[in-house]
Amino acid sequence: MDVQPTAGIGLVGCGRMGSAIGVHLLGADWPLAVADPDPEAIRLLTALGAEAQPSPAAVAARSGLVLVVVVDDEQVEQVVAGPDGALAGGAPGCVVAVCASVRPETCRRLARAGAERGLHVVDMALVRGERGAEEGRLALLCGGPEAVIDAWRPALSAFATDVCVLGDVGAGQVAKTANNILLWACLRAGVEAQRLARAHGVDLGRLRDALAVGSGANRPLAEWGKHRLRWPDKDLEVARALAADAGVAVPLVDSLAGLMAELSVDDLQDLL
Questions:
Q1: What spatial distance separates the first Cα and last Cα of the chain, rounded to whole Å?
Q2: Which of 18, 26, 39, 46 is surrounded by the most beta carbons within 10 Å?
Q3: pLDDT in tens, 3-12
Q4: What are the structural domains, with CATH classification, of the chain?
C-alpha cells in the first residue's frame, strides 16, 4: 500500500468547497499546502496558516494526500496529469483524491497513470454541498482500494462525518450521480407537492412535519429553503451520459433536467 498517513495534506482548488474544507483541516492542525490560479481564493487559508504553492505538483511534493476540488473533467485532467500536475510532483505512496464530480472513466484513466508512478488516484465525491462543507459534515463517496482510503480517515474526519467506500476507482462518482438524481427529484417533487397542498389551504410547515414521519420523508424536504440550486444542469447531464454509456433508459432523469431548469431559489423560498 505504501501510503503516508502522517504526512501533510494538499488542496488543489480553493473555491467555496475547497476553502471550507481547508478551514476545517487547519482547525484540526493538519499541515496544509494549497494551490489555486486565483490568488484571492487562497488568501483566507494562508492567513490561517496554509502554505501557498505555485502548482499542483508543488502541492503534491509536500503532501501524502492531495484533495482535488476543482470543477470538471478538463480541470481534473490538468491539475492531476498535466505537466505541473499532482502526479508530476507526488512521491510514491501519495494519494490523489478526485473530489470533483467527473466521469468515472476520467478517474480510472488517472488511476492507471498514477499507478505507473507509484501513486494512488482515488475518487472521493463530495455530498451535502456547500453547507455540508462549511459545517464540516460532508459525506464522501469513494472509489479505490479500501485500505488506502481507510489510512486517511483521521484527516478526512476533520471535514466529513461519513466516508463510504463503494468499490473500485470510479464507483464513488457513480454513487454521487445516483445521489444527485434523488436530490433533484426530491426537490422538484417537493415543489409540486407543496404547491398542491398550499392551493388546498394546508399549512406548509405542518405539512413538512407530517411528511417527515411518512413515506415522503427525505433530506431535501427536511432542509427546505436552504438549497442553492447551483449544479442541477451539470449533475443531470452527467447522469444522462452515464445512462447512455450503459444503455439504460432513464425517462425520469430526461424529464427532470427541464423541470429543474424552470426552478429558482426564489421558488423554493416561496414555499417556506
A1: 50
A2: 18
A3: 666 679 999 9
A4: 9-168 (3.40.50.720), 175-269 (1.10.1040.10)
Whole-number Å distance between alpha carbons of 173 and 184: 16
Q: At what angle do helices 171-199 and 232-246 cross, to 10 degrees?
A: 120
pTM tops 0.85, yes or no:
yes
Instruction: Determine contact, residues 144/120, Cβ cutoff 8 Å.
Output: yes
Nearest residue to 126 via CA among 269, 27, 214, 17: 17
Provide the pLDDT for residue 4. 64
Q: How many Å apart are CA 47 and CA 32, to the nearest integer?
A: 12
CA-to-CA dists, residue 230 to 16, 29, 89, 129, 202, angstroms = 12, 31, 33, 9, 30
Is the pLDDT confidence value at 1 over 60?
no
Instruction: For residues 121 and 14, give the distance between their C-alpha atoms in angstroms, rounded to a whole number.
Output: 20
Per the structure block, which three cell numbers stand in for 34?
494549497
Across the strands, what pairs with 125? 141
Give 175-210 pLDDT, tens digit per residue: 999 999 999 999 999 999 999 999 999 999 999 999
Q: Which long-range contacts (CB under 8 A, 24 or more apart) does 23-27 make?
A: 23/48, 24/136, 24/158, 24/159, 25/155, 25/158, 25/159, 26/50, 27/158
pLDDT interval class at 27 (50, 70, 90):
very high
d(CA 63, CA 1): 16
Q: What is the pLDDT of residues 202-248, one digit of tens each?
A: 999 999 999 999 999 999 999 998 888 888 998 999 999 999 999 99
Asked if 229 and 265 touch (Cβ cutoff 8 Å), the reply is yes
Q: Which three cell numbers stand for residue 44?
A: 483566507
Question: Where do the DSSP E strands lie in 160-215?
Answer: 160-167
| DSSP single-letter state for residue 50 | P
